[in-house]
């Protein structure tokens, strides 16, 4: 029996639709509408870099441009419709998924016991009960509130004081939860006070978690191999993801499908039996231009983005400046179903101006009058989102893509 093949254009269309990047970025973006959007894409990665706006706000704004940061703050801190924890990185997640992480906390603690002693200075384990008792009696704390009398390190994660390390341990293992953020600083409280259903939740068995995690990842990706299923939520092991895929294939719940890459190569993935019909009925991506966060869920898997879109992207914040090809924090640019370039843009809020230092169109792409108009319109929208009154293009801003 021949294996179905999904053409590249159809694969991109399906993938962008699953990531809410096909339809126009309009509509309501607060309350239950915002919660539904986060549930649709699965999670929103948190990041502290703030050259324009922080990653989590950029991710949501690129899909609903009525979104404002206070909408997520209310959803998290007052409505308690979302919570904060770890997927592949720190993320905002739908509250209904919490019980799957309840299952994962013991696994996470086991891994941490093997590693944290090598990464952090000692003395944090004796702080666990002390901090839990203090928070129970006195209420939420930040890392600035703890560690009285402890030596202060350089500030890097590898040199936290013991109390700060203990707070992070207790958060990673589910004893504490982030009740709010002051600026970008976490405020920790007892998990049962932040997420009241903790004591009512039935912790699922391992098989249930594997089945949910792989199914939920596949439905959000459209098609995936076992490594992508594992990595999406980072809740299952490679062995578990491979075993699930094999069993689901045998049961007829998934099929194998060949997907054409942007460069013409073909890879084999798992998909739902109706994947070809789903791709055919997925909407064509609107032609408007969007500036995406480097941590957008559609770009998190850099290899997948390169295969599907022919777009090679690596963030260069940790690359020494002389060795950077593009810039410290360069934003990918999406037009319709194509990633057409990257842009070095920064909000100077004290001057109320959004400055464009560089734009590198992809090879063979022409920045004609129509595309330039769309770029200017999107930058004007981005400027308003960042609290700026105007856009300024610096001299030499239009560059050539580097090989």
SSE blueprint and pairings:
Blueprint: E1 5-6, H1 8-18, H2 31-41, E2 44-45, H3 55-61, H4 69-77, E3 82-86, E4 90-94, H5 98-119, H6 127-138, H7 162-172, E5 176-182, E6 185-190, H8 191-194, H9 206-221, E7 223-224, H10 226-233, H11 238-251, E8 255-260, E9 266-271, H12 275-281, E10 289-291, H13 302-309, E11 331-335, E12 338-348, E13 353-361, H14 369-385, E14 390-393
Parallel strand pairs: 1-8, 13-14
Antiparallel strand pairs: 2-4, 3-4, 5-6, 7-9, 8-9, 10-11, 11-12, 12-13
Helix pairs in contact: 1-12, 2-4, 9-10, 10-11
Short description:
With 403 residues, the chain is of the alpha+beta class. Helix content is 39%, strand content 18%. It is globular and about 65 Å long.
Describe this structure in words.
The protein has 403 residues and is of the alpha+beta class. 39% of the residues lie in helices and 18% in strands. It is built from 14 helices and 14 strands. Strands 10-11-12-13-14 form a five-stranded mixed β-sheet, with helices on one face. A hairpin with a 2-residue loop joins β11 and β12. The radius of gyration is 22 Å and the shape is globular. The model has no long low-confidence stretch (mean pLDDT 93).
């Amino acid at each position: 029996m021949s294996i179905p093949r999904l053409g590249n254009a159809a694969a991109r269309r399906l993938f962008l639709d699953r990531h809410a990047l096909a339809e126009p970025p309009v509509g309501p973006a607060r309350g239950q509408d915002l919660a539904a959007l986060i549930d649709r894409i699965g999670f929103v990665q948190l990041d502290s870099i703030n050259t324009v706006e922080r990653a989590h706000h950029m991710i949501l704004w690129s899909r609903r441009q009525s979104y404002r940061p206070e909408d997520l703050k209310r959803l998290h801190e007052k409505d308690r419709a979302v919570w904060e924890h770890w997927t592949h990185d720190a993320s905002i997640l739908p509250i209904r998924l919490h019980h799957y992480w309840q299952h994962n906390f013991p696994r996470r603690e086991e891994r941490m016991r093997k590693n944290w002693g090598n990464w952090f200075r000692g003395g944090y384990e004796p702080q666990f009960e002390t901090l839990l008792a203090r928070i129970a009696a006195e209420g939420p704390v930040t890392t600035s509130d703890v560690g009285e009398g402890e030596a202060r390190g350089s500030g890097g994660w590898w040199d936290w004081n013991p109390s700060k390390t203990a707070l992070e341990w207790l958060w990673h293992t589910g004893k504490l939860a982030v009740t709010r953020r002051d600026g970008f600083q976490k405020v920790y409280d007892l998990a049962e006070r932040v997420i009241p259903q903790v004591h009512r939740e039935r912790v699922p068995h391992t098989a249930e978690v594997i089945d949910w995690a792989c199914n939920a990842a596949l439905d959000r990706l459209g098609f995936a191999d076992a490594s992508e299923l594992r990595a999406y939520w980072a809740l299952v092991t490679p062995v578990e993801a491979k075993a699930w895929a094999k069993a689901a294939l045998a049961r007829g719940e998934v099929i194998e499908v060949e997907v054409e890459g942007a460069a013409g190569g073909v890879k084999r993935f798992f998909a739902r039996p109706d994947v070809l019909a789903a791709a055919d009925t997925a909407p064509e991506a609107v032609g408007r231009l969007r500036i995406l966060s480097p941590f957008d869920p559609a770009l998190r898997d850099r290899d997948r983005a390169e295969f599907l879109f022919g777009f090679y992207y690596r963030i260069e914040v940790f690359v020494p400046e002389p060795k950077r090809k593009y810039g410290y924090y360069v934003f990918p640019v999406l037009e319709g179903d194509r990633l057409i370039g990257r842009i070095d843009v920064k909000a100077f809020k004290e001057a109320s101006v959004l400055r464009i230092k560089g734009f590198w169109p992809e090879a063979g792409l022409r920045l004609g009058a129509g595309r330039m108009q769309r770029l200017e319109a999107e930058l004007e929208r981005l400027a308003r989102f960042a609290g700026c009154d105007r856009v300024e293009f610096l001299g030499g801003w239009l560059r050539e893509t580097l090989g």
